Amino acid sequence: MKYEAAKLKDISKALGLSVSTISRALHDSHEISEATKKMVRDYAESINYRPNPIAVSLREKRTRSIGVIIAEIANSFFSQIINGIESVAFIKGYNVIITQSLESYERELNNINFLASHSVDGCLITVSTETSNYDHITKLYKNGFPVVFFDRVVEEIKTHKISIDNFKGAYDATTELIKCGFKRIAMLANAEHLSITQERLAGYKKALTDAGCAVDNSLIKYCRHGGMIYEEVEQSMNEAMQLSNTPDAFFAASDKLTTNFVRYCTAKKIKIPDELGLIGFSNLDLTDLLVPSLSVIRQPAFEMGRIATELLIKTIEARRPIVDFERKILQPELLIRESSKKRKK
Amino acid sequence: MKYEAAKLKDISKALGLSVSTISRALHDSHEISEATKKMVRDYAESINYRPNPIAVSLREKRTRSIGVIIAEIANSFFSQIINGIESVAFIKGYNVIITQSLESYERELNNINFLASHSVDGCLITVSTETSNYDHITKLYKNGFPVVFFDRVVEEIKTHKISIDNFKGAYDATTELIKCGFKRIAMLANAEHLSITQERLAGYKKALTDAGCAVDNSLIKYCRHGGMIYEEVEQSMNEAMQLSNTPDAFFAASDKLTTNFVRYCTAKKIKIPDELGLIGFSNLDLTDLLVPSLSVIRQPAFEMGRIATELLIKTIEARRPIVDFERKILQPELLIRESSKKRKK
DNA sequence: TTGAAAGCGCTAACAA
DNA sequence: TTGTTAGCGCTTTCAA
Q: Name one Pfam family in it (chains A, B) (predicted).
């Protein structure tokens, strides 16, 4: 079954003009008479002619589309980023091809290879939790394929990067928990090697030491899939809650870790914040409707998508290779609600 | 800045063979000797050769990709559908291009025109709430462009359609509210002309009349953007709550209507279910964590995406035009939790 | 078993 | 102002 669309040749035959004249007329070239242009345009309109983007891409060696690799669409943080990406891509006339790694290195590899093999002009990437080898990205970048990192960036690769101030987000959250009177603050962390994990971990530790609290490594629980799988959060929580000196609050370092923390507490009938305080990263719209409402670190996700896309398109459209790469850091926002408010006993 | 990938010609030059021999060798043609094949394959591998998908598409008049038009990525129901779509597309070797209408007819038109102009081999569509004229889709379909509708289907167009049993979902939800003792059950509905709205409305009405309750049209509130905008829900709710005989429960007919209903009640300090009972359509993972936990109608979204994609790929790969179109109806699931449990006073 | 050449739909350099 | 032609990277028919 095939769909036969009109092509230049069809118009050319119908009007008795050459294909190049049609092409030029449709591109409003100055070397075509107004009369011809009008005739061509009217006819093209009447048969609903659309240039074949595949042919144009082949010719122009560009697709006017950009690729995106995110971890998971079903995650508010990423879907808000996508909205930011689309908002500028739309204006600039680029199409967006979204792919998900689902936190799998293999899928990421697959996606990036597809995208880079001339399917898109450039790529926006946040690496999967499983990714610790970056050869597949380095190779592209060395070949001149434009890549911009967002959120989970790779320091070794020199290109535009945009992330949020993860250190500050973590520092402020932890400090707030300390101020609220929590004594043993645990951290539910994402995969250990990720840039965001390291930065958030550093912020968490600094806040503790600045407040004169000791850092207890048994209170730091890594979740290899970033909390995407409930069972890993459950296991981490079980381990933490079985310590001789159990934590009295948690700092959850990602969207999914935060919601799965709440799910765990609900399942185990652990009262937030009385038994366990919580501040977590989350971009979910509903966190203020939970009971208790969640104190969260909210990331400017839409903004991040917007800026990343602007940088990527700038790179794609640059005449000469970019040497001066930008490193943008956006500020997170700490929204203090009930889950971090320790009640006096 | 451009990215130069290896092409057949490069291999041809390097090995002193013709381009056609290289092409055949890489396709494992029987007319090429094993020795040549091995040499070509090894060399291609060594330089990491990938065929240019644009050139292949132009040649083969197919792109091995499918397009998707959904309302909004940042909506659990749709993001779950996307996961279903990707799961089968991935296996069948198709790429997925996702576009959002954001409930705008203009954007939908834009997206579908882009996708249909040879960018993809076929399309999965759920129409926007604003769409009431279907000429743009009819035109494509008449030209033989494969289209499969899911969720919000268009009856006038003869093609594969997959949706859930909206009548039953609404009927069961309303009946449950009646059984729980609610007397004046209002409906928060999506845009009036949508297929899903009509079906859910019919189920709601039938449940009322079957139970001997009168249908009161002042209790049916349409939201043109399907609840995507909080203000429209707020206005509808305000109107409903100012009636002389206010409702004591709501049936919310979409994901966003359900969550924005909760948002409204929280803002106005209306207690669910004591002051207002609720059952709503929702595929959000978190509805069981809200207090009270929400009684919801859950749709098999992943499944819907999966089946829609299978039907689309079947259509794309069919040798002859399809005349027998399928109409699949999936069953929703009613999860009864606390928001619909009227307490004795 | 291999090569030459045409053609997919489009644009643009060169001719007229 | 318009037409002719080459070529983007690939597959495939026809010829050798």
A: LacI
The architecture of the domain spanning A60-164+301-330 is 3-Layer(aba) Sandwich (3.40)
Note whether A73 contacts B: Cβ–Cβ < 8 A.
yes
Q: What is the pLDDT of residue A2?
A: 45
Residue A169 tokens, joined: 């987000």
Q: Positive or negative, the Cα torsion across B238, B240, B244, B249?
A: negative
- How far is B61 from A218, CA to CA, in rounded Å? 59
**Closest by CA position to A107, among listed A130, A123, A139:** A130
Nucleotide nearest to A12 (CA to C1'): D3
Mean pLDDT in residue range B9-13: 92
Q: How far in angstroms lies nucleotide D9's C1' from the CA of residue B202?
A: 56
CB proximity under 8 Å: A 164-193 to B:
none
- Confidence at B172, pLDDT banded by 50, 70, 90: very high
Between residue 172 and residue 201 of chain A, the positions with Cβ below 7 Å from nucleic chain D are none
CA–CA distance from A279 to each of A184, A205, A259, A290 (Å)? 14, 15, 11, 13
Over the stretch A266-307, which tens digit does the pLDDT of each residue have? 999 999 999 999 999 999 999 999 999 999 999 999 999 999
CA distance, residue B143 to nearest chain A CA (Å): 6
Which CATH superfamily is B166-299+334-340 part of?
A: Response regulator (3.40.50.2300)
Place of tokens 């799988």: A229
Q: Does A86 touch chain B (CB under 8 A)?
A: yes
Q: How far is CA B300 from the centre of its chain?
A: 11
At B129-153, the pLDDT tens digits run 999 899 988 888 887 889 999 999 9
Predicted TM-score of the model (pTM): 0.91
Which B residues 11-40 have CB within 7 Å of strand C? 16-21, 24, 30-33, 35-36
* Strand D contact nucleotides, protein CB < 7 Å: 1-5, 7-13
pLDDT of residue A209: 97
| Average pLDDT value over all residues in chain A | 93
- The domain spans of chain B are 8-50, 60-164+301-330, 166-299+334-340
pLDDT for position A318? 86
Whether A286 contacts B284, CB under 8 Å: yes
